[in-house]
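Please, structure for the following, as C-alpha cells.
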Amino acid sequence: MATVGGDSRRKDDAAAATNVSVLMADQIAYYRARAPEYDQWWAREGPSDFGPEFNAAWASEIDAVGAVLSAFNPTGEVLELAAGTGGLTVELARWAKAITAVDASPEALEINRAKLSQAGIPVEYVTADLFAWEPSRRYDVVFFSFWLSHVPVERFDAFWAFVARSLRPDGRFFFVDSAGPEWSRFSGASEADSESTVRRVRTPTDVAADVALREVADGRQFHIVKRFWTPDALRGELEARGWEATVAETAWAFIYGHGRRSDHL
C-alpha cells in the first residue's frame, strides 16, 4: 500500500512537471512572437541599441566567439538546435558540409531560410519542440546558441542524453550562451533590483527561480526559463555526465563550450 508521503511526493512531482510544461509552452510562444524582432537584439538596433560604447563592446564579444568557433572548425554534418533566425547558422555554413536546423518557431526558421538561401550547402529545416524530437541520423557536430540557458533543471539530464544520441561516436558539441545576468560595466544595460532579481531592458529575471519575464514590441509578456551558468559549475556538471568539456567565457557577454563524450575512443 502506498504511503501518504509517497502519494504526496507523486503529486508534487506531477505538479512540477505540469508547471515546467506550461513554462516551456510559454517559452515557445515567446520566441514565435519575437522572431521578427530577434535580429535587432543581435545587431544592437532599435530598442536594443544601448549606445556606441556598448555596441562596440558587443561587436567585439561576437568577434571573440567567432574566433573560438573558427578554431573549433565545425565541419561535416551539423545539427543546429534552436537555430532561430540564423545569425549563427550563416557562420556554420562556412564550415559545414550540411546543416539540419531545428527550432520550435516556424516564424524564426522562415527568416533563417531566407538568410541561407545562397549558402551553397544543403540546409534541412525542422520545426519541432526540441524536447519531443529525435533525429533520424547522427551528426558530426551538435551546435546550439542561446539555448542551454533555456533548458530547465528538470530537463537538463534528458537534454544532454539527447545530444549524446545525436552524435556519431567521435562527434563533438559546441555551444554559446549568455554569460550572466548583469552587464554592470555598461550603464543602462542592466540594473540589479534585488539580490535575486535582475532587470534587463524591461525584462526582469528571477535568478533564484531560473525564470525571466520577457516582453515583445506589442506589449505581450511571456515567462521563459533563464538559467545562468559559470564555467566551472557547468564543466563539473558535464564531466559528471560523461563529457570531456572545455567551458570558458569571453570578456563579459558570453559563455561558450565544446567537447565530446569521454568514451569516444
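The chain is about 35% helix and 30% strand. Confidence is low (pLDDT under 50) at residues 1-6, 8-17, 184-202.
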